[in-house]
Specification:
Length: 286
């Protein structure tokens, strides 16, 4: 009986080193999240004094205090306020930015090039430069201390980044579909809603994800326009939580941070494959 030597593949130390490096980078990136979860369960005297990652014992009362909210406003009310603002911003950006992008990508009109260049230039304009004029306008309209200043601008296609993103995606779509629809009697609006809009779903979902995350985490704009604690969001409540008591309640504050983080994580996990598809398509087409 003859034996044959089984050829073994040589160990590629470069690939092993690459995997170990990626694992180390993953641990570094996940450490802040692990620290946040662990700190939300630490007793008050261990949050600042102890450098250990794990608490000596689990302080579940931090979450009980966090769910009570701040300024007699429950965490459920704060959560609903945040969802209302973020949902309105997502709806406004998806509708207005897609309509503006369709006009720039498909329609022919005078000064389209200069107007598109001017819109792109507004991306470099800092948000703080237009905050005071916007505040004066909304104050004169009597809309301060309402949700309208945080939602209404989204319905006016003020986010040039998302308009550019959708324009790049639409430019990669075949024009033959619209030409065939035009022969069948479809106008610009019908072609947009029945043909172009369904094909632009990856870019629209990318717009929705970024809008939701940025609006949910927004603190400065909400701090400027919202005064009534009943209208506060979770982001504002986190800052108010420290001021609500004479001593620093870091444990409940970190517990509320975990509660505020959960919707973002769930929203991202639900649509992450569309995010990758939309970003890749928008970058390769056009």
């Amino acid at each position: 009986m003859t034996t044959t030597a089984v050829a073994r593949k040589p160990v590629r130390w470069s690939r092993i080193a690459l995997h170990l490096g990626c694992l180390a980078a993953l641990l570094v990136m996940l450490y802040p999240l692990a620290w946040l979860l662990a700190t939300s369960l630490k007793p008050a005297d261990e949050v600042i004094a102890s450098l250990d990652l794990l608490p000596s014992h689990l302080e579940w009362s931090n979450y009980g205090t966090a769910f009570e909210g701040v300024n007699d406003v429950s965490v459920w009310r704060l959560l609903s306020n945040s969802l209302l603002i973020a949902g309105g911003a997502v709806l406004g950006n998806v509708i207005s930015c897609s309509l503006a992008a369709y006009a720039f990508a498909r329609l022919r009109f005078r000064f389209r090039g200069p107007m598109f260049a001017f819109m792109i230039a507004t991306i470099m304009l800092p948000h703080h430069a237009i905050l005071i004029p916007q505040y004066i306008i909304f104050n004169q309209l009597g809309l301060v201390n309402t949700y309208w200043p945080l939602i209404l601008p989204k319905f006016l296609a003020t986010e040039a980044f998302f308009v550019f993103l959708i324009v790049q995606f639409m430019r990669g779509l075949p024009r033959e579909l619209e030409e065939a629809a035009r022969i069948d009697g479809c106008g610009p609006f019908r072609s947009f809603f029945q043909i172009v809009l369904p094909l632009t779903r990856p870019a629209l979902i990318t717009t929705a994800i970024f809008t939701f995350i940025w609006t949910w985490n927004d603190f400065f704009t909400q701090l400027i326009y919202l005064f009534d604690p009943d209208k506060f969001t979770l982001t504002l409540a986190l800052r108010s939580f420290v001021d609500a008591s004479s001593q620093s309640a870091f444990g409940p504050m970190f517990a509320m941070s975990v509660i505020a983080l959960l919707p973002i994580v769930l929203f991202f996990l639900a649509f992450q494959r569309f995010l990758v598809e939309g970003m890749a398509s928008s970058g390769l087409k056009g």
